[in-house]
Amino acid sequence: MNSKKQAPVKYYVGIDVGSASVRAALVDEFGAVVAHADQPIQIWEPQPDHYEQSSADIWAACCSVTKKVVCGVDASWIRGVGFDATCSLVVVDKQFQPLAVNCEGQNYRNVIMWMDHRAVSQVERINATQHRVLSYVGGVMSVEMQPPKLLWIKENLKESCWEKAGYFFDLPDFLSWKATGVTARSLCTVVCKWTYTSDGGWDDSFWKMIGLEDLVKDKYEKIGNHVLSPGESVGNGLTPEAAKDLGLPEGIAVAASLIDAHAGGLGVIGADVKGHNLPCENQPITSRVAMICGTSSCHMGVSETPIFVPGVWGPYFSAMVPGLWLNEGGQSATGKLIDHVVRGHVAFPELQSKAATSAHSIYTYLNSHLDLIKKSLPVGFLTVDLHVWPDFHGNRSPLTDLTLKGMVVGLTLSRGLDELALIYLATIQAIALGTRHILEAMEAAGHHINTLFLCGGLSKNPLFVQMHADITGKPVVLSKEVESVLVGAAILGACASGDFASIQEAMAKMGKIGRVVQPNHEHKRFYDKKYEVFLKLVEHQREYRSIMNS
């Protein structure tokens, strides 16, 4: 970083806004992260299923972490900036000032988070229309998408928010506006979360049918009538004000943004796999699925022609990789679920104390504890009598049933660390079984998938990775850089700078393979049985609901 005699290196800044923190990285032209910083951001939960944030708080964190990663670097070597973020909804007035998305009138809380489920009634009514645009979201719109949230605002905050609103941004688009002063939207956000189609644009009949005809009247100015492909340069680059805020030179190229999961997909799915003896070698990129595993998990598969998968979002044209159709499966709570199960257990204080004494994270300690209690068995076999259905926050894919609840079968009166370790293991297995459920739906519809590419926080947990390999029966590829989402954001900046001819070229050069985890095929019979039980659990849940509702 301080060696001034070396030949100039091209650097790109990737900025990632996750659910609970903002991260930035300085990434070189070969995909190596040379500096990294993060900062927490605030989440408000004023009532159950309502999650809110502040766009001012988020932008301040973006500026803070960016200044840290570029400190001491020759600014002339920094060529471009790329943003990714959660698909949260940002509301501002006609002067771009924040507007409250809450009944309390707290204007600084102007972001409805992606995981907010306040608009259940609205999404049910939208789905009841069976409008043709719903075929591009797996047939059923999710409460986590933007149309139901917009309808909720109109119905619940009409005077204080809806009528005063000047712009509704997806968070990734808010960030590119903040950096450039240009209100252009990314094709990724509007296609994946707003029902825009890459060939036909907005469908007037849909917005009128669901009661949001107001948006049609002003030619969609509030939600975006200028759409750019991800990685395309926005406006004239950084404005003087944004450059000062971020600690970067004015005019540096800023890319049209991506949703965070899609940036993770970009950072891993195109990597060169030669020499790793993988089934996807010499196969098209369509044989791969990128899994971005954090608070929630997303499963990104691409195809050359549109594939309609029931219960899986898409197909979206050019939403992640230009020229290819994207299908996106997902699990609404994965990292959040593991934390919930572990921290809510009566033995958690004991775990916390022992992990601290051994100077390990609680999850490293749990993995070691499982190795101690397994005796002669493979670790995964410890849950022969313990089964979890993981939809504690509803099912996003492939059942698209928001009302499903979590289930645990096989509990005893034991309350110790052994039992905590077992429920932790069973929860991880349930998440992997859910991934298998999604992959099977995609394959049944026409995808041909043979390799998983994992990134995100959970991909750092070796037990999580091995369970996904064993339960799906597919090899798992981990990227060389654990911060693949940030590499994906930096790839956008690299494309906006003009240093690469295409996103595909940048993906191949900047995405690097680290480790490959192979499935243990000797365990296949056990996990086939676990999967059979897994599917029975949801059958039983639906049966008892039918009984109770009859």
Automatic annotation (TrEMBL):
<dbReference type="GO" id="GO:0005737">
    <property type="term" value="C:cytoplasm"/>
</dbReference>
<dbReference type="GO" id="GO:0019150">
    <property type="term" value="F:D-ribulokinase activity"/>
</dbReference>
<dbReference type="InterPro" id="IPR018484">
    <property type="entry name" value="FGGY_N"/>
</dbReference>
<dbReference type="Pfam" id="PF00370">
    <property type="entry name" value="FGGY_N"/>
</dbReference>
<dbReference type="InterPro" id="IPR018485">
    <property type="entry name" value="FGGY_C"/>
</dbReference>
<feature type="domain" description="Carbohydrate kinase FGGY C-terminal">
    <location>
        <begin position="290"/>
        <end position="496"/>
    </location>
</feature>
<dbReference type="InterPro" id="IPR006003">
    <property type="entry name" value="FGGY_RbtK-like"/>
</dbReference>
<dbReference type="InterPro" id="IPR000577">
    <property type="entry name" value="Carb_kinase_FGGY"/>
</dbReference>
<dbReference type="InterPro" id="IPR043129">
    <property type="entry name" value="ATPase_NBD"/>
</dbReference>
<protein>
    <recommendedName>
        <fullName>FGGY carbohydrate kinase domain-containing protein</fullName>
    </recommendedName>
</protein>
<dbReference type="Pfam" id="PF02782">
    <property type="entry name" value="FGGY_C"/>
</dbReference>
<feature type="domain" description="Carbohydrate kinase FGGY N-terminal">
    <location>
        <begin position="11"/>
        <end position="267"/>
    </location>
</feature>
<dbReference type="GO" id="GO:0019321">
    <property type="term" value="P:pentose metabolic process"/>
</dbReference>
<keyword id="KW-0808">Transferase</keyword>
<keyword id="KW-0418">Kinase</keyword>
<comment type="similarity">
    <text>Belongs to the FGGY kinase family.</text>
</comment>
